[in-house]
Amino acid sequence: MDGSVGLSLLVWLFGGILSLLGALTYAELSASNPEAGGLYCYIRDGFGRMPAFLYGWSLFLVIASGTIAALARAFTRYLVEIFPLSSIESKIVGVLMIAVVTTVNVWGTRKSSDLQNWTTLTKVGIVAVLSAVLLSLGHHASDLAPAMGTTQHGFSMVSNFGLAMIAVLWAYEGWQFGTYSAGEVLKPQTTFPKAFLLGSLFLMALYLIAVIAYLVALGRQQRRRATRLQRAR
């Protein structure tokens, strides 16, 4: 994104709006058809049992398993920054994390729900505190306004914007899984639209504040160097 602060914020905002529209669509579907199964039920009712059957197996064999593997890989990649691990050790840690989460989910719905609530609360708290510290101690707030413009135009800008959207939409991903519990929620007609709307807006605000704090702390040039180093790894 050529170091443009404006485009960086715009891609996070645009990705959040797309995710919000998708979340509200799923909220409407879950409210009108509060049945356990989520997207499987919507595909079954809209397109038939065969597409729903294929989706269910694709979710089990490719979509969900691939997502879990990618998240485990991301976990070990960040863990290596704190605790030096070899390639084999990183793979072992990733497999162990998958095994631990699987065990908790098999143990019971309440156990897995508690784990998810506490880990989510911890992550949100860390991001909020870190953003507050960076905003208060950063010395590059004056660099943001001059960096709002971009030197890219036309197809190059659209192409890079779309490429950045892949990572952004991945960060927002996950809202659709709430619909799988529609059959177990009290008053889904009011609970799901409210939860999806407020949750999406809160996540958008959290990401935007974190990005601004990151830029205020590092500045435009340091942020570009950090991005290049990360890509090089």
Strand content: under 5%
Kindly provide the radius of gyration, computed on alpha-carbon positions and rounded to a whole number of angstroms: 20 Å
Distance linking N and C termini: 19 Å
Characterize the biggest β-sheet: none
Number of strands: 0
Helix content: over 70%
- The helix-strand sequence is HHHHHHH
Discrete helix count: 7
- Low-pLDDT segments, ≥5 res: none
Mean pLDDT over the full residue set: 82
Principal-axis shape equals: globular
Structural class: mainly alpha
Explained architecture:
The model has no long low-confidence stretch (mean pLDDT 82). With 233 residues, the chain is mainly α. Helix 2 packs antiparallel against helix 3 (49-80). It has 7 helices and no strands. The chain has helices spanning 5-32, 39-47, 49-80, 87-107, 109-137, 154-172, 188-232. The longest helix has 45 residues, at 188-232.
Provide the descriptors you would attach to this structure in a database record:
single chain; 233 residues; mainly alpha; globular
List the helices and strands and how they pair.
Blueprint: H1 5-32, H2 39-47, H3 49-80, H4 87-107, H5 109-137, H6 154-172, H7 188-232
How do you describe this structure in short?
By secondary structure, this protein is an all-alpha fold.
